Amino acid sequence: MPTGAPTGGLVLRRAIRGQRGRVIAASLLGMTHQGCEALVPVVVGVVIDSAVATGSSASLLRWLLVLAALFLVLSTCYRTSARITEGTGELAAHRLRMELAARVLDPRGGAEANRLPGALTSIATNDARRVGSVATVLSYGVSAVAALVISAVALLRISVPLGLLVLLGIPPLLWLGHLISRPLERRSETEQERAAHASGVAADLVAGLRVLKGMGAESAAVARYRTTSRDSLAAALRAARSRAGHEGAILALTGVFIAVIGLVGAYLAMDGSISVGDLVAAVGLAQFLLGPFQLLTYVNAELAQGRASARRIAEVLASPVTVEGGRAAPAAPAAGHLALRGVSLGALRGVDLDLPAGSLTGVVTGDPAVAADLLLCLAREQDPAEGTVELDGVALTGLDPDALRRAVLVAHHDADLFESTLLENVRAGADGDTTAVDHALTASAADDVARLLPDGADTLLAERGRSLSGGQRQRVALARALAADRPVLVLHDPTTAVDSVTESRIASRLRELRRDRTTVLVTTSPALLAVTDRVVVLDDGAVRADGPHGELLAADAAYRATVLA
């Protein structure tokens, strides 16, 4: 973990510190509520000694009024405290979700490494909720401890041995409760990890359901999820057994402790050391103590689970970034001159490539890994292992990633659509420029898609655009990339699911719309390559050929086979 990175303890402290005022207010109200509850058996004992035993109606009425006042105060404090504590937990969880979202969306990347999207969702929901619960139960714990202290003081006034028994017995009980909670903490962490993994696998299977059906791989996918789900269930059952054992052990300890208090009180009453009213008060306090002890049991369990979840959140927040953030910003507006100098990354091998400002360049490769690594470099999702990528003469490593992506847009082949209207999907990157949106819809032929929908461009699309065909989704995604109107646009196979007539129309409109701005088409489509200024052929990760599309078709058999296959 990087130096200074968040830890589980730091995540917990920040969650509590962010709601400090609400926690203090809820704790004060809870202490008042518990204090009034502890005083009820004491007042009942006083009623017995000063009113019932003496037959004084005035004294009875006076103490009954005192009891009524106690119940009024404790009920008011309870309602107010409960409202504040629940809000505290929700606010703390919300703040954590915002931190997690900011980390996942950080332009430098890294949070998603080795984590399925469903796992990140589980951390941002379940784990954030559990850590938020720590802020909620903290005031409960303070109230319970206050109730124990008030009860001990009341018992000291009744009998010093009884008071000392409570005061000296509470610390060992709390220490034993902490020891008993350790297995629960470990198993809770495992439970959350398995549940997050199961959620991630489920999300992946749902997203690829059509592909799985097309391949006839449903049974293998079901078997995979069944195994993952069973592992998650087993971890959940182990955590449930641990929690049950934890609560049972704590209740047994507190039950024995309260029984000892009752027995000592009875012995003192029989010995004449305390009155009947004092005995009633002592027994009432002993029974009341069961509530604070149960509350502490609950708090201890929530803290154990909260600590486990906090560590998982800390792992995401402390994830090392994929690329280091530079400080500089591209010129506004950027000219758009891209250059790769000796770039090596994954399948790329010392690529030297110059893409002048305003050019329309095709890049052809038969190896999908080469295309993927090239896109990673141009989008600065990863930095080259060797060499540099430059924009207008400045290395991308010296540019702020967020500012860079406002100048260079890399539109991946598998870009998803949002669950919103077609028009809102296209507007997502347009910065409010309605003219750019209209031109993008026309250039991508997405306006034809809109005309086929029941509500036109205002038709609500299903999740990931599944209500559209593959070709329709591609056109809407292309329109979104074009509407962004970036100085540099890199498109990866934007028309693989589009018919040839529409593809030719898109190619000519694309060239016109992107005139005088740098555009890179990573594709093997002859229709798109025909409108480019030049085509660069990457073979075995290096530049093998460079020239106009027509010349390469005529002179290069390997190129011809790749493009016309």
Automatic annotation (TrEMBL):
<keyword id="KW-0067">ATP-binding</keyword>
<feature type="transmembrane region" description="Helical">
    <location>
        <begin position="137"/>
        <end position="156"/>
    </location>
</feature>
<dbReference type="InterPro" id="IPR011527">
    <property type="entry name" value="ABC1_TM_dom"/>
</dbReference>
<keyword id="KW-1133">Transmembrane helix</keyword>
<dbReference type="Pfam" id="PF00664">
    <property type="entry name" value="ABC_membrane"/>
</dbReference>
<keyword id="KW-0547">Nucleotide-binding</keyword>
<dbReference type="Pfam" id="PF00005">
    <property type="entry name" value="ABC_tran"/>
</dbReference>
<dbReference type="InterPro" id="IPR027417">
    <property type="entry name" value="P-loop_NTPase"/>
</dbReference>
<dbReference type="InterPro" id="IPR017871">
    <property type="entry name" value="ABC_transporter-like_CS"/>
</dbReference>
<dbReference type="InterPro" id="IPR003439">
    <property type="entry name" value="ABC_transporter-like_ATP-bd"/>
</dbReference>
<keyword id="KW-0472">Membrane</keyword>
<feature type="transmembrane region" description="Helical">
    <location>
        <begin position="280"/>
        <end position="301"/>
    </location>
</feature>
<keyword id="KW-0812">Transmembrane</keyword>
<feature type="transmembrane region" description="Helical">
    <location>
        <begin position="60"/>
        <end position="78"/>
    </location>
</feature>
<dbReference type="InterPro" id="IPR039421">
    <property type="entry name" value="Type_1_exporter"/>
</dbReference>
<feature type="domain" description="ABC transmembrane type-1">
    <location>
        <begin position="24"/>
        <end position="305"/>
    </location>
</feature>
<feature type="transmembrane region" description="Helical">
    <location>
        <begin position="162"/>
        <end position="180"/>
    </location>
</feature>
<feature type="domain" description="ABC transporter">
    <location>
        <begin position="333"/>
        <end position="565"/>
    </location>
</feature>
<dbReference type="InterPro" id="IPR036640">
    <property type="entry name" value="ABC1_TM_sf"/>
</dbReference>
<feature type="transmembrane region" description="Helical">
    <location>
        <begin position="248"/>
        <end position="268"/>
    </location>
</feature>
<dbReference type="GO" id="GO:0005524">
    <property type="term" value="F:ATP binding"/>
</dbReference>
<protein>
    <submittedName>
        <fullName>ABC transporter ATP-binding protein</fullName>
    </submittedName>
</protein>
<feature type="transmembrane region" description="Helical">
    <location>
        <begin position="23"/>
        <end position="48"/>
    </location>
</feature>
